[in-house]
């Protein structure tokens, strides 16, 4: 009689070596939910710690158990007050460092300020600043998910594991959309075409790209320095030479490259925050004949009136993961659905703590994914 043992992923999930401590660095109750899920999957208790705001709005962290010589994992989800979130993380990491923890791994499913990763005129690359602060505080490893730009990993001088949520979203499409074979994957702008192509190739579906929408903050037009010299000087340049100017971009009227008529349209992106562009894309797809519209994204920030705009729009369903707590938004808008990604985070923690290879979590992931 042959007895088949369970897959290694499931068999080893709840087995970790000693010396593992998991803290949640967030003072907001709804933001601690992900930490509880991860701890349950690993079969450990959350570490005892107090994180709170004093009357003068200073953040205070008090670790209430020994971390000397232990592997500490600090889980931090981004709350509405992103700056407080960062300070809570930094102070807790520094507290673990000064308490002689052997290693300190930060688990930030959504990396804050990730959209500010390019130089714009006289701005700054804030993602680099945040990375430097975290390394300086004492972080020795970072686990994150679907960075806005993969190059952000280069801002750190410590190992960074940029996990992917796409397997969970693909599974949702296959299990929760009965006629997904009649779907088309849509990129709401050419910038997100690579992600759409990745989804389409894995699901064996067609792809459509919306082109010509209004200028957005990620465009190249505002990237760089456009201030002309106040006085036309020719001291350093020969009088007969003149620097050619780059012709400004002018976007054409909105067009949809690809057939969406009589199909389900699935718009994919990494972040859904300001939903105006998603609502506009949904209206365009409806006009082109799409009969059902889904939006799939890893990080559901959903700021301000996003739930109301989604509820009033042509979008049928918005599917996001629980990298960011959004229970309040779900109460305001029943169209918002959540996919749990605590499994992959807990497996990453287990493998790092046990000194196992992380390549299993990155199988079938290409350079452009």
UniProtKB/TrEMBL annotation:
GO cellular component terms attached to this protein's record: cytoplasm; ribose phosphate diphosphokinase complex
Function: Seems to play a negative regulatory role in 5-phosphoribose 1-diphosphate synthesis.
One annotated GO biological process: purine nucleotide biosynthetic process
Acetylation as UniProt keyword: yes
Key words, A-Z: Acetylation, Nucleotide biosynthesis, Phosphoprotein
Organism: Dicentrarchus labrax
Subunit (UniProt): Binds to PRPS1 and PRPS2.
Gene: LOC127355785
Name the UniProt record assigns to this protein: Phosphoribosyl pyrophosphate synthase-associated protein 2
All residue ranges annotated as the Ribose-phosphate pyrophosphokinase N-terminal domain in the record: 21-138
Coiled coil: none
InterPro entries: Pribosyltran_N, PRTase-like, PRTase_dom, Rib-P_diPkinase
Keyword Repressor assigned: no
PANTHER family: PHOSPHORIBOSYL PYROPHOSPHATE SYNTHASE-ASSOCIATED PROTEIN 2 (PTHR10210:SF29), RIBOSE-PHOSPHATE DIPHOSPHOKINASE FAMILY MEMBER (PTHR10210)
């Amino acid at each position: 009689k042959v007895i088949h043992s369970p897959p290694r992923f499931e068999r080893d999930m709840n087995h970790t070596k000693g010396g593992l401590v998991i803290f949640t660095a967030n003072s907001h109750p709804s933001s601690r939910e992900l930490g509880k899920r991860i701890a349950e999957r690993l079969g450990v208790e959350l570490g005892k710690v107090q994180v709170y705001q004093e009357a003068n709005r200073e953040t205070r962290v008090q670790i209430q158990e020994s971390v000397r010589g232990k592997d500490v994992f600090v889980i931090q989800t981004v709350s509405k007050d992103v700056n407080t979130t960062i300070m809570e993380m930094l102070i807790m990491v520094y507290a673990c460092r000064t308490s002689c923890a052997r290693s300190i791994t930060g688990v930030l499913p959504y990396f804050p300020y990730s959209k500010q990763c390019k130089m714009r005129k006289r701005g700054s690359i804030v993602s680099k600043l945040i990375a430097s602060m975290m390394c300086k505080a004492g972080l020795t490893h970072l686990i994150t998910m679907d960075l806005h730009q993969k190059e952000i990993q280069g801002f750190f001088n410590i190992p960074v594991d940029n996990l992917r949520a796409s397997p969970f979203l693909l599974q949702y499409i296959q299990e929760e959309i009965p006629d997904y074979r009649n779907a088309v994957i849509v990129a709401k702008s050419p910038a997100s075409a690579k992600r759409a192509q990745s989804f389409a190739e894995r699901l064996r579906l067609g792809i459509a790209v919306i082109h010509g929408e209004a200028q957005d903050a990620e465009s190249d037009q505002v990237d760089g320095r456009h201030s002309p010299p106040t006085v036309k000087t020719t001291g350093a340049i020969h009088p007969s030479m003149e620097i050619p100017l780059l012709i400004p971009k002018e976007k054409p009227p909105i067009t949809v490259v690809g057939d969406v008529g009589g199909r389900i349209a699935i718009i994919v992106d990494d972040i859904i925050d300001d939903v105006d562009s998603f609502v506009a894309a949904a209206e365009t797809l409806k006009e082109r004949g799409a009969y059902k519209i889904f939006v799939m994204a890893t990080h559901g920030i959903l700021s301000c009136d996003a739930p109301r705009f989604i509820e009033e729009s042509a979008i049928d369903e918005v599917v996001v993961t629980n990298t960011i707590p959004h229970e309040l938004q779900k109460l305001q808008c029943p169209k918002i659905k959540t996919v749990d990604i605590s499994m992959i985070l807990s497996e990453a923690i287990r493998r790092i703590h046990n000194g196992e290879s992380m390549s299993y979590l990155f199988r079938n992931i290409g350079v452009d994914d």
